[in-house]
Amino acid sequence: MAGSHGRMYVPRSRGAASGALIVLLGVWGGLLPFIGPYFDYTYTPDDSWHWTAGRFWMQLLPGIAAILGGLILLGSRSRVAASFGGWVAVASGGWYVVGPLLSPLWNDDFLGQPVGDKVERSVEQIGLFFGLGAVIILLAAFALGRLAVIGDRDAEIGERYVAERRERAAMRRHARADRRTERQPVADGEAVGSDEPVDERHSILPGRRRHHDRRSEVA
Questions:
Q1: pLDDT in the model for residue 191
Q2: pTM
Q3: In a domain, 188, yes or no
Q4: Which of 25, 159, 171, 183 is the most exposed, having the fewest neighbouring CB atoms within 10 Å of its CB?
Q5: Which of 10, 31, 33 is nearest to 151 (CA)?
Q6: Vertex 39, ends 92 and 66: CA angle to 5°?
Q7: Domain count, the chain
Q8: H-type helices in 47-204, by residue range?
Q9: Are the beta carbons of 69 and 140 closer than 8 angstroms?
Q10: How far apart are CA 195 and CA 182, in angstroms?
Q11: Residue 49, SS3?
Q12: 3-state SS, residue 77
């Protein structure tokens, strides 16, 4: 049973390189539409920091998705979570490829047009959409392929990680139980940490001691 749990965990290094590159590409894809006009690498409108619906849906949103998927790949030790991050990155890359082809469904100028001569327009289409999406898909697919392989070393590391988590959980439970025991009131006639009854004449409770002394004086 421990082995099956251990197989659900992977070293963070398994998706670290792909995740970091996908994050950088997501930043590129989401930020370049707004700063690209500074050096004439953009789609119309050729204005820096100009907000349009096309730039949001076709460039910024998939860039955010790529960053999210890359961060999950970069930091997750769960095989399921890391795979989810990989598929989010695949979806973002696919939208960079398919989105420009679907943009005329909104209107003919929803996305805008690449600026410059033929070479510049081709480079802009590759760097802002088709090539960018293809590279993100490639990196995400590479990470998913590595996550699909469960080697003996991965299983060993996962089992050790599960054992450490269980040990830490057990230590926290014991610590909480000790705190609850310390907060419990002392019962009459019992001493803390002892099963023997306490002599009432030597009770640590002052009220009971004074009551016992008064009864002795009356007697």
A1: 47
A2: 0.70
A3: no
A4: 183
A5: 10
A6: 15
A7: 1
A8: 53-55, 61-75, 79-102, 118-125, 131-148, 152-183
A9: yes
A10: 16
A11: coil
A12: coil
- Say if 96 falls within a structural domain: yes
Q: Residue 214 is which amino acid? A: R
Predicted pLDDT at 215: 52
Collapsing DSSP to helix, strand or coil, 130 comes out as helix
58: tokens are 């076709």
Per the structure, the complete domain to which residue 74 belongs is given by 2-164
The answer to whether residue 11 is domain-embedded is yes
d(CA 154, CA 168): 21
Whole-angstrom Cα Rg for the chain = 33
Q: Mind listing the pLDDT tens digit for each residue in 143-181?
A: 999 888 776 566 566 566 666 666 777 777 777 777 777
Residue numbers of the chain with a pLDDT score lower than 50: 1-2, 189, 191-195, 198, 200-205, 211, 218-219
Residue type at 10 in one-letter notation: V
Letter string b/e over residues 89-121, b meaning 16 or more CB atoms within 10 A of that residue's CB = bbbbbbbbbebbeebeeeeeebbbebbeeeeee
Angle between helices 16-35 and 79-102 (to 10 degrees): 30
Looking at the chain, how many residues does it have?
219
Of the candidates 105, 130, 106, 134, the residue with the CA atom closest to the CA atom of residue 43: 130
Q: Is residue 92 part of a domain?
A: yes
